Amino acid sequence: MKFCVALGGNPNAGKTTLFNALTGSRQHVGNYPGVTVDRKEGRYVQNGHDMHIVDLPGTYSLTAYSVEEVVARDFLVSERPRVTINIVDASNLERNLYLTIQFLELGIPTCVALNMIDVARGRGIEVDDKKLSRLLGVPVVPIVARSGFGKKALMDAVETVAESPLPQPLRVSYGPDLETAIQEMEAIITGSEFLTNLYPSRWIAIKFLENDEQIMERGRAADPPIADRLEAITRKVGAHIEETLETYPEAMIADHRYGFISSMLKQGVVKERHDRNRLFLSDRIDKVLVNRFAGPIIMLLVLMGLYHFVFTYSEMPVAWCERAFEWLSAMASASLSDGLLKSLIVSGVIDGVGGVLGFVPLIMFMFFGIAMLEDSGYLARVAFMLDRVFQMFGLHGSSVMAYIVSGGIAGGCAVPGVMATRTLRSPKERIATLLTAPFMNCGAKLPVFALLIAAFFPHSRARMMFILTLISWAGALLAAKFLRVTVVTGASTPFVMELPPYRLPTFRGLVIHTWERTWQYAKKAGTVILGISVLLWAGMTFPRLPDAQVETFANQRIGFISAAAPQVVEELETASGSRPLSTAAAELKKALMAVDARQTGAALRHSLAGRVGTGLESITRWAGFDWRTNIALLGGFAAKEVIVSTLGTAYSLGTVDAEAADSLAVKLAAEPGWRTLTAWSLMIFVMFYAPCFVTVVCIARESSWKWGAFSMVFNTSMAFFLAVIIYQVGAAFGY
Ligand code: GDP
Ligand code: MG
User: Where are the alpha helices (DSSP H) in 170-274?
Assistant: First the structure.
């Protein structure tokens, strides 16, 4: 076989030395066209393979900052050498790997020559080449170019690479802000085949973000409208990052690449025999924060501290919000005349959407806390530490980020979480991750938990949230393990996580990040949730009770009234509320209210939603869910917030005393069918049952409809199974 091998690396890594060792006298020096950069070429023959070897100019990067970089990159892209030997100075590994990462991102077949191991050893540095090879996914061969040691082994590895299929480009993940932009750009690039004959689509997106003049010019020449769109996205995310993090995309990209390298090196690739006192501040902080023993304890404390902070400080504003909606509800009740419109406004809109909007302050505090963890760089450490645990459950370190984005700390969203699984290289691990990420407690489940916690565990809010978080992680990991030994079996792949340096979050950045996410939540409540809430209200109102039945209830009322003494009836009619009623009048009132309750209950049961809910009751009774909860859970498939709004509407429609505009939590706590055990069973069910509709669509798009359907069936079965166990065992022990 005859093929071309390029030799690339940092200046002074030993390229020329290796080149001479390989080609001997069979070489000649020319020039790259149009520039005064030497182009050395030669031949190397082994095992019948005739290799044409080209010494690339030495560069630290593959951006278009210097002529050398442009020449090296253009050569790789246009001449497509079958293998590129990346020669790396082992005594200066961190800086040299920066270029390696870029070769891999470009998706070119690479083989790493770990050079100068003699120098490294002399300085007390030992590099674990096998581990490095596993983490990078390419061969790594230790050599000493000057003595020729390792030359044969290196060229054997080159042959292996030449005979293997072309690799997939490496995907370094660049943090939520940039990733969102990259994914959007990638879709545009792939869809319009924009320069994709030359470069991988993700790579083009990253180059736009890096403001790479050459690529942008080529893009403008090839397809101006698409280039305009990409540049617009670049400007937008650039401005956003500037505002929130006071940095710019190029710097963030470099940070994440170095983070990727630093986490690789932290996994034991480099062993230094004596401390060379080169620890930077981030590394020194990491000595404590990701310490094998102290790290996990600190992590749990941070989490508990976060919940404590969220629940303590959001208590007052949440109470204000609730009171505002109660007031609104009472105002609307008083000013509208009885009828469908009043029912729609009070039960459908105010009690439905109000239930969801009431939690805005809590959500806001949670987002603020998460923004703090994220902007400071701590979140990446959490993922780094959890990697070891994840491996045990057949998942990948990158799954941690997907979990956290989905609401691993409470208050995320499974949709970007499912998208975040794109950084996983193994399809098996990816499926297991995208099926289990929706088990995390997303921002939509949060109000459901907050409601039930407020109703049944008012004195241990932060602790309950902490316990629920642990349960969701345990459930997700066990389910993942189950999936990995049953339906998506296969070996696990090694992991490298980006560890960007710590930075002090700016207040402005925190406020903007918090506001963005809170606004999204509120906007959803005002649009999608409002729509679904009104639909479900209609489902709970129609068909209405037949006239004959309404008349029966009216007759019952008349019966009570005519049986009572006239002065008692008069007392009740003129009662102002400030004066206590006589015993007889109070009794009459109670009797009439009981009739009202029976009527509203009968009407709700008679409605379409009521019938469906009642029909399911024979099964859901095992988990302790009554028909009203069933309606809410069905609605929750559209969006989990709807569970709260539907319970709000159902218990508002069914409420006896319209005057008492109690908050939903108070109503639930007072409801005879509800107790602590019901709350537990419901919380667990909500945590694990079918992902919301949008997430299912997303799972299907990221894998296939088969997996989308699977996630609904599997998750709901698992959730129901757990809920039944909790409810039945709890009941057996008398709870
Ligand atoms: P280039 O800039 O990548 O072409 O690097 P060179 O091949 O010019 O090498 C730079 C210097 O490193 C030269 O002085 C080489 O002799 C030296 N060098 C190259 N490889 C090794 C090695 O494996 N061990 C040692 N000790 N020195 C080396
Ligand atoms: Mg040289």
Answer: 175-192, 201-209, 213-222, 224-245, 249-264
In angstroms, the CA 257 to CA 498 distance is 7
Query: Does residue 662's CB lie within 6 angstroms of at least one atom of ligand 1?
Result: no
The protein residue whose alpha carbon is closest to atom 17 in ligand 1 is 14
Pocket perturbation via mutation, ligand 1, pick of 55, 99, 127, 146 by most ligand atoms within 8 A of CB: 146
CA distance 312 to 307: 8
Q: Which atom of ligand 1 is nearest to the CA of 115?
A: 23
CA distances for 201 relative to 177, 190, 207, 492, 704, angstroms: 18, 6, 10, 26, 22
Span 427-464, pLDDT tens digits: 889 999 999 999 999 988 999 999 999 999 999 999 99
- Compute the distance between CA of residue 639 and CA of residue 532 in angstroms, rounded to an integer: 9
Reported pTM:
0.69
pLDDT digit string, tens, across residues 347-377: 888 877 887 788 788 888 888 888 888 888 8
**CA 77 / ligand 1 centre spacing (Å):** 27
Q: Could you say which ligand is closest to the alpha carbon of residue 11?
A: 1
Q: How far does CA 458 lie from the centroid of its chain?
A: 29
Band (pLDDT 50/70/90 cuts) for residue 286 is confident
Is any atom of ligand 1 closer than 6 Å to the C-beta of 119?
Answer: yes
Ligand 2 midpoint to CA 140 (Å): 21
Ligand 1 atom 25 nearest Cα:
116
SS3 content of the chain, % helix, strand, coil (to 5): 70, 5, 25
For the Cβ of 115 lying below 6 angstroms from any atom of ligand 1, the answer is: yes
d(CA 141, CA 154): 6
- Tell whether omega for the bond before 167 is within 30 degrees of 0, i.e. cis: no
CB 148 less than 6 A from any atom of ligand 1: no
Query: Tens digit of pLDDT for each residue in 542-596?
Result: 899 999 999 999 999 999 889 888 888 888 888 766 677 888 888 888 888 888 8
DSSP letter, residue 149: B
Domain spanning 2-162, CATH architecture: 3-Layer(aba) Sandwich (3.40)
Q: Give the other-Cβ count within 10 Å of 476's Cβ.
A: 26
Numbered ranges of CATH 1.10.287.1770 in the chain:
175-272
Q: How far apart are CA 345 and CA 479, in angstroms?
A: 42
**Mean per-residue pLDDT over the chain, rounded:** 88
Rounded Cα–Cα distance for residues 684 and 390 (Å): 22
The Cα–Cα gap between 419 and 190 comes to: 16
Work out the average pLDDT over 233-243.
94
Distance of CA 25 from the midpoint of ligand 2 (Å): 16
Q: Which ligand is nearest to the CA of 17?
A: 1
Residue 662 token pair: 């109690």
Does residue 146's CB lie within 6 angstroms of at least one atom of ligand 1? yes
Query: CATH 3.10.129.10: does it fit domain 175-272?
Result: no
Distance, CA of 253 to CA of 172 (rounded, Å)? 9
Residues 87 and 115: their CA atoms lie apart, in Å, by 6
CATH 3.40.50.300 residue ranges of the chain are 2-162
Higher pLDDT, 245 or 86: 86
Cβ neighbours of 689 (radius 10 Å): 23
309-325 pLDDT, tens digit each? 888 888 889 889 888 98
**CA 272 to centroid of ligand 1, rounded, Å:** 22
Is the per-residue pLDDT at 35 higher than 80? Answer: no
Q: Is residue 361 within 8 Å of 314, Cβ to Cβ?
A: yes
Distance 18 CA to ligand 2 centre (A): 9
Question: Does the C-beta of 11 come closer than 6 Å to ligand 1?
Answer: yes
337-345's contacts with Cβ under 8 Å and 24+ in sequence apart are 340/541, 343/537, 343/541, 343/653, 344/534, 344/537, 344/541
58 Cα–ligand 2 center, Å? 7
CA of 12 to the centre of ligand 2 (A): 7
